[in-house]
Specification:
By secondary structure, the protein is α/β, with parallel strands linked by helices. It is built from eight helices and twelve strands. Helices cover about 40% and strands about 20% of the residues. The strands form three sheets. It has a five-stranded parallel sheet with strand order 2-1-3-4-5, with helices on both faces. Strand 1, helix 1 and strand 2 form a beta-alpha-beta unit. Helix 2 runs parallel beside helix 3 and helix 6 crosses helix 7. The two termini are about 35 Å apart. About 0% of the residues have low confidence. The structure holds calcium ion. The site of calcium ion (CA) has 5 residues, from loops.
């Protein structure tokens, strides 16, 4: 199976491992971009957004954790798989907390890595981010690039989490989205989050984007299911 349209950014400083990864993934048809240190990775990420990133933690310059944070602070949602030589619980927890989706411990089997990559890319295909990052809900305009809600009664800033929620929900216009799905994609398995967390954030978000939050027209509750963002495509 070829994946020629998909680009994987490999951030790794070990030449032998770079060679193996590049060779293996190119054989699978992926386009490969290499960053051998953290600063190069940041620079590449400012120029182009990959479909997936394989990220070593121990790097010269900026650490893998900081790169991960950098990506998520920019509201980029592509999957990140962390490679770590240190099989320590703290690394895994830190990695997932800064926004990585998965981790794999060195040394690893190529088949396992490929399976993880394919699983992550498939999951990412489940939703697409709005192209313009702008959405009109009646007389309220959402600008997700600027993180601002423009209302007739003034502008309100959105938090990073709210922007991510809106990006995710808008990938499924007029379709119900479950709380669990929001948790998985927006909170990314962070510990100590529950579906109650989703409800609290939805309620806050609703007060920003709805003129009458008690009687929402756009971000509606689907009883027993979750939530739905109602809007016409192309708005
Ligand atoms: Ca390394």
């Amino acid at each position: 199976m070829l994946h020629s349209s998909q680009t994987i950014l490999i951030v790794e400083d070990e030449p032998g491992l770079i060679f193996t990864l590049k060779d293996t993934l190119e054989n699978e048809g992926y386009q490969i971009v290499i960053a051998e240190d953290g600063n190069k990775a940041i620079q590449l990420l400012d120029e182009n957004i990959p479909d997936l990133m394989i990220l070593d933690i121990m790097l010269p310059g900026v650490s893998g954790f900081d790169i991960c944070r950098h990506v998520r602070e920019r509201n980029l949602l592509f999957p990140i798989i962390i490679l770590t030589a240190r099989d320590q619980e703290i690394d895994k927890v830190t990695g997932l907390n800064v926004g990585a989706d998965d981790y794999i411990t060195k040394p690893f089997g190529v088949k396992e890595l490929l399976a993880r990559i394919q699983a992550r890319l498939r999951r990412n295909d489940e939703y697409t981010i709005m192209e313009s990052n702008r959405l009109n809900l009646g007389n309220v305009q959402l600008d997700l690039n600027q993180g601002v809600v423009k209302r007739p009664d003034g502008n309100i800033d959105l938090t990073t989490r709210e922007i991510e929620m809106l990006k995710f929900l808008s990938g499924f216009p007029n379709e119900p989205v479950t709380r669990k799905s929001l948790l998985r994609h927006v909170w990314r398995y962070e510990q100590s989050t529950s579906t109650r967390t989703v409800d609290v954030h939805i309620s806050k978000l609703r007060s920003k984007i709805e003129m009458q939050p008690d009687d929402p027209k756009y971000l509606v509750t689907m009883h027993g299911v979750g939530y739905m963002l109602k809007f016409k495509k192309g708005q």
